[in-house]
Amino acid sequence: MYPRRRPPGTGCPVIASVSGVDLVLIVTEPTVSGVHDMERVMDLAKHFGVPALVVINKADLNRDQSDRIESLAARYGSRVIGRIPFDREVNDSLMAGKTVIEYGRGPACAAIEQTWEQLSAALADIG
After folding, report:
1. What pTM was estimated for this model as a whole?
2. How confident is the prediction for the chain on average, in pLDDT?
3. What are the TM regions of this chain, as residue ranges (predicted)?
4. Residue 101: is its pLDDT beyond 60?
5. Cβ atoms of 34 and 6 closer than 8 Å
6. Which CATH class is domain 20-126?
7. In this predicted structure, what is the pLDDT of residue 104?
8. What's residue 18's pLDDT?
9. Which end of the chain has a smaller Cβ tally under 10 Å, C or N?
10. Which among 68, 88, 91, 89 is positioned nearest to 80, based on CA atoms?
11. What is the distance of C-alpha 33 from the center of its chain?
12. Alpha-carbon span 34 to 40, nearest angstrom
């Protein structure tokens, strides 16, 4: 008999990283597997009594799944604090050996900056 395997998203490293923290930030993509993994991490955060916030990477590639992520976050009493659009500048920045913020001012850069502001505010509310 084969050992039972855990689905991606909630293995031992994730469990270890959630225990003892003040906030969980889940970065997901609007795919079936991304939504599934996000839900498993939301369950884990709920189990440990840790609030969770969500960022949707490439949010504009599948609007239906992005909407599903929004609904799921709300169902868990959480919220989406960032919606990063698909942006070819991200790949260009990687090729240049720079972060997206260092590289330019495209839509992904602006979304990451807005997400950081939302995360900073959430962390200030906790501390």
Report:
1. 0.87
2. 90
3. none
4. yes
5. no
6. alpha beta
7. 83
8. 80
9. N
10. 68
11. 13
12. 10
Asked if residue 36 lies in contact with residue 7, where contact means CB atoms within 8 angstroms, the answer is: yes
Percent of the chain scoring above 70 in pLDDT? 91
Residue position matching structure tokens 């913020």: 101
- Amino acid occupying residue 120: S
Q: Which two tokens stand for residue 126?
A: 């906790």
* Among 90, 70, 92, 91, CA closest to 79: 70
Q: In what order do the strands lie in the sheet with 24-28?
A: 24-28, 52-57, 79-84
**Structure tokens given for 11:** 């293995």
H-type alpha helices, the chain: 12-18, 32-48, 63-75, 88-95, 100-103, 107-126
Radius of gyration (Cα) for the chain, nearest Å?
Answer: 16
* pLDDT exceeds 60 at position 78: yes
Residues paired with 27 in a beta bridge:
55
